[in-house]
Amino acid sequence: MSGKFQWKKFYEINLLDSFFDPLKSDYPEFSDWFQMKCQKGEETLVYNDDTGIGAFLYLKRENESIQLENKMLPFCNRVKIGTLRLSERQRGIRLGEGAIGVALWKWQESQAEEIYVTVFEKHLELINLIERFGFQCEGKI
After folding, report:
1. Distance of alpha carbon 21 from its chain centroid, rounded?
2. What percent of the chain clears pLDDT 70, i.e. is strictly above it?
3. Residues 45, 51, 52, 55: what is their CA dihedral angle, to the nearest 10 degrees?
4. What pLDDT, on the 0 to 100 scale, is given for residue 4?
5. In order of start, what are the domains of the chain with their CATH numbers?
6. Could you tell me the CA-to-CA distances from 51 to 20, 90, 129 in Å, in that order?
7. Please, what's the largest Cα pairwise distance for the chain?
8. Dihedrals φ, ψ of 56, to 5°?
9. Which among 52, 117, 131 has a CA at the least distance from the CA of 88?
10. What's the rounded Cα separation, in Å, for the pair 97 and 9?
11. Which of the residues 86, 123, 127, 132 has the least number of beta carbons within 10 Å of its own beta carbon?
């Protein structure tokens, strides 16, 4: 595996890279969201190898309540794993574990009370990965 993780500004990343096609498909507003992050000068963690983008991790600080289908999670300081995606070629080689490890490290550094991620039910590999790190389903949005 030749490549490395680097913190990059959104505007340094090529949104037209085919890596982002599944995100654009799942989230029709993804391109607009990405452009907003570019304009704000926000950073994300990107793994690049000889082929291109292999992984992408975006973390966001929040202090709000979260309305779920059957309950409300109260206001508190949280870190949200806003985006976590691995390319097909990077799956099964523990790169996802590294990305989750970085997210948990940043959460601990932030001293936020909670960390969370929202996941489509169809992403079973991601669900299995985050559950191995202690994440639990709190409900549906």
Report:
1. 15
2. 99
3. -30
4. 84
5. 3-132 (3.40.630.30)
6. 14, 11, 24
7. 45
8. -145, 125
9. 52
10. 23
11. 132
Pick from 39, 40, 37, 44: nearest CA to 6:
44
Q: What is the reported pLDDT for 71?
A: 94
The yes-or-no verdict on residue 5 having pLDDT over 70 is yes
Tokens of 45: 């963690």
Q: Choose among 79, 92, 103: nearest CA to 5.
A: 103
Q: Is 120 exposed, middle or buried (0-12, 13-18, 19+ CB in 10 A)?
A: exposed
Map the chain to HEC letters: CCEEEEEEEHHHCCCCCHHHHHHHHHCCCHHHHHHHHHHHCCEEEEEEECCEEEEEEEEEEEEEEEECCCCEEEEEEEEEEEEEEECHHHCCCCHHHHHHHHHHHHHHHHCCCEEEECCCCCCHHHHHHHHHCCCCCCCCC
Question: Closest Cα to residue 54, out of 100, 16, 17, 27?
Answer: 17
Side chain identity, residue 139: G
CA–CA gap between residue 48 and residue 17 (Å, rounded): 12
